[in-house]
Amino acid sequence: MATMTVSLPDPMKDWIEARIKQSEYASASDYVRDLVRRDRARREQELTLEELRRRLAASRESGVSDRTVDEIFAEAREIARARGLTDE
Questions:
Q1: Cα–Cα distance for residue pair 40/22, rounded to 1 Å
Q2: What is the reported pTM?
Q3: What percentage of the chain carries pLDDT values higher than 70?
Q4: Taking Cα atoms as reference points, which of 31, 36, 37 lies closest to residue 13?
Q5: How far from each other are the two terminal CA atoms of the chain, in whole angstroms?
Q6: Which listed site, 5, 44, 63, 79, has its alpha carbon 20 to 30 Å from 13?
Q7: Residue range 29-55: average pLDDT?
Q8: Mean pLDDT value across residues 69-74
Q9: Given a cut of 70, is residue 88 above it in pLDDT?
Q10: Could you tell me the sign of the dihedral formed by the alpha carbons of 54, 78, 24, 20, in that order?
Q11: Half-sphere exposure of 80 (CA within 13 A, CB side)
């Protein structure tokens, strides 16, 4: 396993140490590893610019929806919940 030295402002260091004291993490390294895992998982779900363009083109080609705006937003919230992108 590689070693990396990171400099942090005191408030960030204090935050990490508080998480450790609350037994959320075993060590600062454990905390940082968790942050990296979460960042990687989040980025894997992000759309590329090309995918976003493809979806936009497909939506334009599909025409007008018969669903209400509330129904569309409800579906979007459900998708976000399923992907773990919201606290709701």
A1: 25
A2: 0.55
A3: 99
A4: 31
A5: 37
A6: 44
A7: 92
A8: 94
A9: no
A10: positive
A11: 10
Distances (CA, A) of 51 to 57, 60, 62, 64: 10, 14, 16, 21
Per-domain residue ranges of the chain: 11-45, 49-82
Residue 21 binned pLDDT confidence (cut-offs 50, 70, 90): very high
Which residue would you say has higher pLDDT here, 1 or 17? 17
Length of the chain: 88
In 3D, which of 32, 37, 58 has the Cα closest to residue 47? 58
C-alpha distances out from residue 3 to 13, 24, 47, 63, 67, Å: 18, 22, 32, 54, 53
**61 contacts: CB under 8 Å, gap ≥ 6:** none
How many angstroms separate the CA atoms of 86 and 78, rounded? 9
Distance of CA 35 to the CA centre of its chain: 11
